[in-house]
């Protein structure tokens, strides 16, 4: 392998000649070869937007020559096309401020600029008016807000549309309700679906509301929040430029001391993701319970047959999309624990758990978006209602006895249900044998269609 010599403040470092990074990236690769998780590219792209915006703003403020600005902007645009993704190899488990990934970005931009014959320094030019301590949390917010807006929210809206369609389609299909996993009074399948639909509707509201806190960017705080080495109003100009570049409406975080050391906005927003995980867990579990069988379970709905379910039992089909979605829900819940604990670790002017916070946050968004898409396309959209099984469940249920209570009293109704169960009778047969009502009265009082 051919090497070149790169230098930083600690001396010389050998770097693979085919790579575009510099000494600090190489040191990080050597000292922090921990695990398999690389810094998410969404964070790198957030940093690249910051470098591009900073070049423009620094030039506007008379700090960076036009040629240097144009070179940095051009290089950032090239990298943002995905051409050089392999030049960002650093692990999540690095310096807790994200400094090494910030410098990785600075070094790659500078190297590519210098290949064009321009004299661009990673710190003096690319990192001008910035610190890792304000660029990295800014990139975290850009990446998190972008992922929610572009990945998760569109999928939630598609779920809502499908669930509304199902709710209307099955609004008059009566089935037995269940509480405590036991028979309860009837409802329609459309009403049951409406519960799922409202869960997603509420989650969409919670995520939309909480993610507004991610719009606040702390760029301009530099090292400890004072803005040292950044020109006056650099934060205002940067946020305006970043809003234009990303086509998202960002806001200046006025208190930079808060922005560097606290990640409550990410904690708050991930709480809404955790709530969504809980709801999709419930929906997926409901669906696989309702589809249980097909002959020895509830069997009220049938799921699409996507793949064989067993290596030993021929013809077995399993609710695998539900299993995948619920595993994702569990992972998101675990991610939330990591994020909440990591967010509590802000000491003095800096939180140094930033990489693990954003890694887990973005993983949650990506997993939820992908798993919900898969579940919607390969399970939810293909559900078939077994009307005969639903009708049979209503007919056999002892909890229709609830409709008798206003006429014969709670205690007598309980006796009817118990007598019917013990003697394998229908409620109608039991109430007549116990002398509490005639067949005609039973038919008049117990009408499932009037109980929903």
Computed CA radius of gyration, to the nearest angstrom:
30 Å
Q: Kindly report the average pLDDT value.
A: 97
State the order of secondary-structure elements, H for helix, E for strand: EEHHHHHHEEHEHEHHEHEEHEHHHHH
Q: Given the structure, what is the number of helices? A: 17
User: What's the main sheet like?
Assistant: 2 strands, antiparallel
Q: Tell how many strands the DSSP assignment holds.
A: 10
Order of neighbouring strands in the sheet with most strands = 1-2
Helix content: 55-70%
Low-confidence stretches: none
Q: What coarse outline follows from CA principal-axis ratios?
A: elongated
Helix/strand class = mainly alpha
> Gap between N and C termini, in Å?
75 Å
Q: DSSP strand (E) fraction?
A: 5-15%
Any key phrases for this structure?
mainly alpha, two-stranded antiparallel ribbon, 10 strands, 58% helix
Question: Can you offer a commentary on this structure?
Answer:
With 452 residues, this protein is mainly alpha-helical. 58% of the residues lie in helices and 8% in strands. The protein is built from 17 helices and ten strands. It has helices at 23-31, 41-60, 66-80, 99-115, 122-126, 132-169, 189-211, 234-246, 256-261, 264-290, 320-343, 354-378, 387-396, 405-408, 410-422, 427-433, 439-445, and strands spanning 3-8, 11-16, 174-179, 182-188, 216-217, 251-252, 301-302, 346-347, 350-351, 384-385. The strands form five sheets. Strands 1-2 form a two-stranded antiparallel sheet. The chain has a two-stranded antiparallel ribbon with strand order 3-4. β5 (216-217), α8 and β6 (251-252) form a beta-alpha-beta unit. α1 (23-31) packs across α4 and α2 (41-60) packs antiparallel against α3. The longest helix is centred in the first third of the chain and has 38 residues, at 132-169. The protein is elongated.
């Amino acid at each position: 392998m051919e090497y070149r010599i790169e230098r930083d403040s600690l001396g010389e470092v050998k770097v693979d000649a085919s790579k575009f990074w510099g000494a600090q990236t190489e040191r990080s690769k050597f000292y922090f070869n921990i695990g398999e998780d690389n810094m998410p590219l969404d964070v790198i792209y957030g940093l690249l937007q910051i470098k591009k915006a900073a070049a423009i703003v620094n030039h506007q403020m008379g700090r960076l020559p036009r040629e240097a600005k144009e070179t940095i902007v051009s290089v950032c645009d090239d990298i943002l096309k995905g051409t050089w993704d392999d030049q960002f190899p650093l692990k999540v488990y690095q310096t807790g401020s994200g400094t090494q990934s910030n410098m990785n970005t600075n070094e790659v931009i500078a190297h590519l600029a210098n290949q064009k014959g321009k004299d661009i320094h990673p710190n003096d030019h690319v990192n001008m008016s910035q610190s890792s301590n304000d660029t990295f949390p800014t990139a975290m917010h850009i990446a998190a807000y972008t992922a929610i807006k572009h990945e998760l929210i569109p999928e939630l809206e598609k779920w809502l549309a499908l669930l509304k369609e199902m709710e209307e389609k099955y609004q008059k299909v009566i089935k037995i309700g269940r509480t405590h996993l036991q028979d309860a009074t009837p409802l329609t399948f459309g009403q049951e679906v409406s519960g799922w639909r409202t869960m997603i509707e509420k989650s969409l509201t919670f995520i939309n509301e909480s993610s507004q806190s991610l719009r606040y960017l702390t760029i301009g705080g530099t090292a400890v929040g004072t803005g040292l080495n950044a020109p006056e109003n650099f934060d205002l100009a940067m946020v305006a430029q970043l809003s234009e570049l990303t086509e998202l409406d960002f806001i200046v975080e006025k208190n930079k001391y808060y922005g560097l050391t606290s990640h409550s906005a990410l904690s708050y927003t991930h709480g809404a993701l955790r709530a969504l995980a809980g709801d999709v867990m419930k929906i997926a579990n409901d669906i696989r319970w309702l589809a249980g069988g097909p002959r020895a379970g509830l069997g009220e709905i049938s799921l699409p047959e996507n793949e064989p379910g067993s290596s030993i039992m021929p013809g077995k089909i399993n609710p695998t999309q539900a299993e995948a979605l619920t595993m994702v829900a569990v992972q998101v819940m675990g991610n939330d624990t990591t994020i909440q604990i990591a967010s509590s670790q802000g000491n003095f002017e800096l939180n140094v758990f930033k990489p693990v916070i954003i890694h887990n946050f973005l993983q949650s968004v990506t997993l939820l978006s992908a798993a919900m898409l898969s579940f919607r396309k390969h399970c939810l959209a293909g559900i078939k209602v077994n009307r005969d099984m639903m009708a049979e469940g209503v007919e056999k249920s002892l909890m229709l006895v609830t409709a008798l209570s206003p006429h014969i009293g709670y205690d007598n109704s309980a006796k009817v249900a118990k007598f019917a169960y013990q003697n394998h009778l229908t409620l109608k047969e039991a109430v007549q044998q116990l002398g509490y009502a005639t067949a005609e009265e039973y038919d008049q009082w117990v009408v499932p269609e009037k109980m929903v």
